[in-house]
Write a structure and sequence with these properties.
By secondary structure, this protein is mostly beta strands. The chain is 4% helix and 32% strand. It has a 4-stranded antiparallel sheet, with no helix packed on it. A 3-stranded antiparallel sheet has the order 5-6-7. Keywords: Calcium, Chaperone, Endoplasmic reticulum, Lectin, Metal-binding, Repeat, Signal, Zinc.
Length: 191
């Protein structure tokens, strides 16, 4: 990538931390980072484009172009083919948001945002907890060479019980007090 430096910079002091106005070009760091950097400096902050702009990763040379238009639009081109475009004020976080969450408002304590609740009429069937999760395999047979003196009393292996339905939970019903998801009111940003 290249850095376009602001007027008045000292060439003798140039280094990695030198201020720049624009940084633009491909950034390929192994397989983790493969993108085209488009960083604009605004009010002392380096702002990376919010979009993931692709870059070429083959072994050929490519021409990267960044065009900034007077109407605050831009284009990113690779080999003179437009691969990205948009509005500078929308694709970089230069301006504060037009609307913000009203700091004077918060979700009411009695707001109900659970759409479903356990049915209070649904009762656990009698004997439900008596059904074991595992049962002895009814098809298992004691091996012919089993010796109770040496091996102890034979017990069949345990298998999942087809009648076991898991921990009992009441069915869920629509919550009559449900008000929907709470949406934080927005106000004009005073900045």
């Amino acid at each position: 990538y290249i850095k376009l430096l602001p007027p008045g910079f000292d060439q003798k002091e140039f280094g990695g931390d030198t201020e720049y106005a624009i940084m633009f070009g491909p950034d390929v760091c192994g397989s983790a980072v493969r993108r085209t950097h488009a960083i604009l400096t605004y009010k002392g902050k380096n702002l990376l484009i919010n979009k993931n702009v692709k870059c070429e990763t083959d072994n050929l040379s490519h021409l990267y172009t960044l065009i900034l238009h007077p109407d605050n639009t831009y284009e990113v081109r690779i080999d003179d083919k437009k691969i990205e475009s948009g509005d500078v004020t929308e694709d970089w976080d230069m301006l504060p948001p037009k609307k913000i969450k009203d700091p004077e408002q918060s979700k009411p304590a009695d707001w109900v945002d659970e759409a479903k609740i356990p049915d209070p009429e649904d009762k656990k069937p009698e004997g439900y907890d008596d059904i074991p999760a595992m049962i002895p395999d009814p098809e298992a047979e004691q091996p012919e060479d089993w010796d109770e003196e040496d091996d102890g009393e034979w017990e069949p292996p345990m298998i999942d019980n087809p009648e076991y339905e898991g921990e009992w939970k009441p069915k869920m019903i629509d919550n009559p007090d449900y008000k929907g998801p709470w949406v934080h009111p927005m106000i004009d940003n005073p900045e």
